Amino acid sequence: MANDIQSIAKRLYELRTFSDYSAKEMADLLKIDEKVYLSYENAEDEIPINLIYKFAAILDTEPLYILNGQMPEKDDVCVVYGGNGVSVKRYEGYSFSSLAADFKHKTMNPMLVTISPQDSPELVVHTGQEFNYCLEGELRVIVDNKDYFLRAGDSIYFDPSLPHAQLAMNNAPAKFITIINEL
Question: CA 64, CA 101: separation in Å to the nearest integer?
Fold first, then answer.
């Protein structure tokens, strides 16, 4: 994981400096403290996924480029067979597989997520809208301090600017599709 953090930090630095932003300017645009931003850019802390999306939007680049260093190549169609999208490991207990990583200029980000049981999920916020569809297991979705319980076939659509998280239930993993539309 340390190499992933270091690679992401390097891309943050390169993209920021190439775009002629100071660390202070970028921190202000992200609405975070400059020291916090520099801790991400110096690989001291792992940057949250919502800030990766925000950083990418500011610099008009692809979030997955920041995560894995590869730019999308498809203009018209992107096919992923067998759920084998581009794997993204971001949080302990969460495994993301991007189902449209190779599609340019996405207006939404569909991902297959497998989540392991954990005690206290990290609440996150980001722009846009979010849709979760439970495929396997049981999922607790927390949105703005309210709990919603999903089983296979259940779904939830919500405003992700509200603090939210997903949690696998009954000491068993859960698998779900999430689609995030970054407005």
Answer: 7
The letter for the amino acid at 80 is V
Residues in the chain: 183
Alpha-carbon separation of residue 156 from 29, 38, 82, 140, 165 (angstroms) = 30, 35, 24, 11, 12
HSE, side-chain direction, 13 A CA sphere, residue 20: 0
Question: Is the pLDDT at 183 greater than 70, yes or no?
Answer: no
Task: Report the 10 Å Cβ neighbour count for 108.
Answer: 15
Distance CA 160, CA 182 (A): 10
Per DSSP, 147 falls in state: E
CA 120 remoteness from chain centre: 18
Which among 119, 117, 112 is positioned nearest to 168, based on CA atoms? Answer: 117
What's the average model confidence in pLDDT over 74-91? 80
